[in-house]
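Saturday, quiet lab. Running sequence design on the structure tokens for the scaffold JK sent over.
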């Protein structure tokens, strides 16, 4: 069965809604036209619907086809063995036909849950988020075509099938306007000029760390680094000003999306604790927590309809040629004294590393 969310929000879903409206218009016109005019109108509408759904100028595909056998194996393991994607979701993420996906999974011996077991003391499992499945439950209109190059999945240590998606960064604002956005929603300074940013990918390092770097058309460069440890995930976000003017009001939106972790994905803020720079979400029994923090934190908040957590930082003003850096922390906690856990995290000195 076709994924309802994908059909409704994808180009084909939008085209089908267009066709329904077109048919309604044709029917209305038909009440005022002769028999031959009605037939001609309906023929044109049918042709437009076919072109719109199957061959018209729709949005570019939001998929990334693996380049070569090694990449195919990596992404199939990522999607199926870890994220437990369906064949349809893998097809949406890779651009392959479902039959090609099924054949590759069988040939490579990849199946859901077939992966190395995580053991206490190991670094937390962190993987690039593969796309193909929307990381939000709600407010989907606020994140159309989410791009995977800023998103990573962090799997919980107690349930290997449960994960949270960190978006680093989701958005960057400056005195120039919305300077970067990792999905389609409101206009950025680039979409207003008709400029499309090329897709990029995380660089995967042998120690499990991930890094990504993008240079924007005006010379602003930003880079993110995600480093898994046994007790936490440490993050850095760096911005370099390649323009001729000082950049100010450099607000960043970094998001933790909770959809993939059922213990934490209730559409409510009643299970959230905000204690700048820490933002935490608890399980229904109050014994398990996820914690996010960025420094310097400009705005701690949570968005119930998504649901997600934010500890949104702000870069200091950045003169031409200069660089600025932010630090982030993500961790899990089991216990009933989350504010005591905040103090313990403070004592690690992570903000000054």
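Result came back. Writing it out in full:
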């Amino acid at each position: 069965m076709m994924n309802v969310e994908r059909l409704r929000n994808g180009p084909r879903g939008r085209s089908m809604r267009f066709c329904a409206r077109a048919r309604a218009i044709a029917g209305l016109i038909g009440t005022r036209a002769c028999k031959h005019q009605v037939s001609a109108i309906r023929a044109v509408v049918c042709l437009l619907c076919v072109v719109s759904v199957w061959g018209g100028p729709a949005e570019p595909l939001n998929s990334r086809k693996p380049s070569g056998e090694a990449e195919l194996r990596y992404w199939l393991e990522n999607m199926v063995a870890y994220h437990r994607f369906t064949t349809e979701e893998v097809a949406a993420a890779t651009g392959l036909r479902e039959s090609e996906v099924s054949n590759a999974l069988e040939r490579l011996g990849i199946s859901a849950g077939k992966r190395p077991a995580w053991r206490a003391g190991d670094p937390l499992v962190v993987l690039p988020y593969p796309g193909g499945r929307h990381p939000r439950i709600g407010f989907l209109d606020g994140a159309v075509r989410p791009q995977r190059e800023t998103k990573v999945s962090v799997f919980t240590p107690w349930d290997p099938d449960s994960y949270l998606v960190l978006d680093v960064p989701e958005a960057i604002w400056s005195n120039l306007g919305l300077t970067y956005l990792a999905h389609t929603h409101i206009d950025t300074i680039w979409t207003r000029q008709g400029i499309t940013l090329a897709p990029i990918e995380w660089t995967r390092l042998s120690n499990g760390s991930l890094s990504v770097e993008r240079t924007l058309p005006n010379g602003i460069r930003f880079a993110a680094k995600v480093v898994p440890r046994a007790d936490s995930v440490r993050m850095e976000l760096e911005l370099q000003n390649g323009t001729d003017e000082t950049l100010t009001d450099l607000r960043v939106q970094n998001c933790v999306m909770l959809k993939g972790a059922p213990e934490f994905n209730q559409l409510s803020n009643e299970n959230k604790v905000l204690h700048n720079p820490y933002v935490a979400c608890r399980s229904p029994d109050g014994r398990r927590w996820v914690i996010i923090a960025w420094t310097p934190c400009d705005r701690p908040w949570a968005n119930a309809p998504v649901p997600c957590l934010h500890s949104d930082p702000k870069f200091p003003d950045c003169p031409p040629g200069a660089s600025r850096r932010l630090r982030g922390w993500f961790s899990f906690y089991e216990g009933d004294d989350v504010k005591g856990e905040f103090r313990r995290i403070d004592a690690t000195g992570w903000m000054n590393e």
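Notes for JK: The first helix runs from residue 4 to 9. Residues 1-33, 40-59 have pLDDT under 50 and may be disordered. Ask whether to fix the surface positions before the next round.
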